[in-house]
């Protein structure tokens, strides 16, 4: 009985020792998590005014007819056309007949002119022999000169007729899509009447209105942000139309859009600088964690442990966002892998953190 009790006590002591040994071998908290980091930095920001605008095409034309006539063919709405493609045809049957008549007239005058030149040469020989009066030679030469002028005029008339026939075929002035038809086959159009609307969907920009007071801040080439629904893209100001409307006190700006699936007519907003730029602490957009309680960044200390810092966001410029809080230029911030980190957790940095812009001064606020 005593032997059984002694064995039980020994088993308990051994088990307790194993538990203590396991506890001593257990790591302090969760294992290090792999992350990628970037540096906070100083950057120039300007307060912005979000101005409404719309996506427009740089080439949007009501293609007109240069000839009056009956329409026999017109491109369908939605048809994609290349520059020079046929978009409409007019009835040119009368012009074809006139062209044939003009060709016949040219040939008739050419025949008369050929006879007149030969006649002139004969009269020149006769004049040398003094068998005809000089006035007869002058008359023959005059008739030849008149026929030469008639031939020149007939050729011009023929060229005009052929040009009119060319006008009977309306060509696309640029690559585009037929957005609207103003005539149907069988209808009559006059000179200068629009046939259809052609829009180049590959050359787009934003047309926006800005207060005249911002004119000093707006220059061609200025980087701006364009927001469409939940998309935010970076673009550049292409031009500023320096003509303000007296009623609205606003002027037009044009923003060149990057390539993308922008629908023409889409309502967008453009962030235009409303004051001179200022220096501020900026962090990469990927460093921000947005929660219901606010925005945060995860800072990695010298001991590779994390610290969660609450920040207030401000203006943005490209991939940089202005922040206010306990963040200094040069701080290492997690940009990948920070969603599930615990406060104080040790991390393994998978990259060497660098600033987005050279010349970051460490320790500046």
From TrEMBL:
Molecular function terms, GO-annotated: efflux transmembrane transporter activity
This protein's record includes keyword Secreted: no
Location of the Multidrug resistance protein MdtA-like C-terminal permuted SH3 domain: 280-340
Residues making up the signal peptide according to the UniProt record: 1-21
Protein name: Efflux RND transporter periplasmic adaptor subunit
Keyword Signal: yes
Recorded family membership: Belongs to the membrane fusion protein (MFP) (TC 8.A.1) family.
Coiled-coil annotated residue ranges, if any: 137-164
GO cellular component, one term: efflux pump complex
Keywords, sorted A to Z: Coiled coil, Signal
Superkingdom field: Bacteria
């Amino acid at each position: 009985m005593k032997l059984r009790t002694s064995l039980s006590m020994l088993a308990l002591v051994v088990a307790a020792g194993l538990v203590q040994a396991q506890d001593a071998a257990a790591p302090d908290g969760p294992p290090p998590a792999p992350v990628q980091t970037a540096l906070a930095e100083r950057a120039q920001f300007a307060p912005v005014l979000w101005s409404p605008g719309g996506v427009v095409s740089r080439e949007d034309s009501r293609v007109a007819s240069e000839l009056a006539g009956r329409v026999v063919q017109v491109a369908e709405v939605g048809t994609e056309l290349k520059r020079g493609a046929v978009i409409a045809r007019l009835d040119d049957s009368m012009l074809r007949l006139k062209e044939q008549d003009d060709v016949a007239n040219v040939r008739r005058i050419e025949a008369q002119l050929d006879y007149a030149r030969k006649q002139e040469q004969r009269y020149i020989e006769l004049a040398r022999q003094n068998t005809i009066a000089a006035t007869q030679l002058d008359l023959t030469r005059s008739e030849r000169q008149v026929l030469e002028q008639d031939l020149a005029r007939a050729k011009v008339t023929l060229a005009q007729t052929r040009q009119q026939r060319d006008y009977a075929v309306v060509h696309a002035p640029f690559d585009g899509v037929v957005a609207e038809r103003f005539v149907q086959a069988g209808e009559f159009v006059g000179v200068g009447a629009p046939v259809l609307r052609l829009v180049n969907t590959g050359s787009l920009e934003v047309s926006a209105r800005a207060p005249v007071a911002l004119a000093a801040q707006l220059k061609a080439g200025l980087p701006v942000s364009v927001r469409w629904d939940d998309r935010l893209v970076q673009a550049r100001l292409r031009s500023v139309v320096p003509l303000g409307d007296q009623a609205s006190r606003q002027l037009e700006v044009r923003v060149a859009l990057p390539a993308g699936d922008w629908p023409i007519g889409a309502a967008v907003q453009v962030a235009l600088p409303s004051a001179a730029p200022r220096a501020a602490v900026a962090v990469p957009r990927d460093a921000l964690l947005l929660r219901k309680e606010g925005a945060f960044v995860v800072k990695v200390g010298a001991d590779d442990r994390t610290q969660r810092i609450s920040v207030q966001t401000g203006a943005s410029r490209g991939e940089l966002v202005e922040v206010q809080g306990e963040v200094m230029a040069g701080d290492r911030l997690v940009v990948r892998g920070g969603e599930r980190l615990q406060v104080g957790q040790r991390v393994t940095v998978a990259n060497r953190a660098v600033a987005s812009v050279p010349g970051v001064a460490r320790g500046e606020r």
